[in-house]
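Lab channel / #folding
Pinned by the channel admin:
"Please post every new chain as: sequence first, then the structure tokens as a reply. Keep commentary short and put observations after the output so the thread stays searchable."

First post following the new format, from NK:
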Amino acid sequence: MHTWHWHTWKELPYLTCSLLEPWKHGFFTQHFWPRSPEELTSVLQPTAQAYRVKQVHGNRVLTASEIKADQAPLPLEADESSMSAADGLLTDQANQAVWSCTADCTPILIGDRQTGQVAAVHAGWRGTAAKILPLAIARFQNQGSDLTNLRIALGPAIAGEVYQVSAAVAAEVGASVLAQTKDPDSILQMLRQLPHSPILPDDYPGHVRLDVRRVNTLQLEGIGIAPSQIAIAPHCTYQDPKNFFSYRRDNQKQVQWSGIVSRS
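Reply from TO:
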């Protein structure tokens, strides 16, 4: 069982995962708001160069060499038009820090124990439906990674038990792990039969509760990632207002950042 640990920086709490111990990393809480990724990189590795993208709920994954590093800290309310649009960011050199911001979606940090390279992925329901995580894994493989060397931590996100979505949305996300059918009702029925089903009942007609992190795990297992290579944070952004922003709960555009630093 992988363990999650609380740490503090200037009395502000953030999380790390034992699965990612070889890398400097952190799933930062709302208490760090509104610090930028450039500022947060100094918490993890002061000499690292910070990289981030403009997240658009898609499935595009870029490498650090494909975007320009921010040369100075930018406030979150700054114009992002000059940033590359993507939802996954993969390093290609040592001492690069990559970042993802979330406020109910799943922040995913990935490391390769052999090459030392890492990635940060933003996976909401749309990105999950578009298989952003398998695409990020494919980019690792393009850089020479072996699947057995990858370690993947899914950070704090809205839990399935409280995430109400329409049946149509749940079926769209579920189709990412069930290629044999496109019928929404059949998809939901098949998902309900899976062990630790990502579909939970909801009292509102035409709706279900959806565990997005479980779907991401099923995608990983479907491409050959072993369960021992995956860790899921036991924290729900919606149910923990003390530590995490939740867009579903507060309808505010505030985020927490998650980042990881590549090593040689």
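NK: The mean pLDDT is 94.
TO: also worth noting, The CA atoms of residues 141 and 147 lie 7 Å apart.
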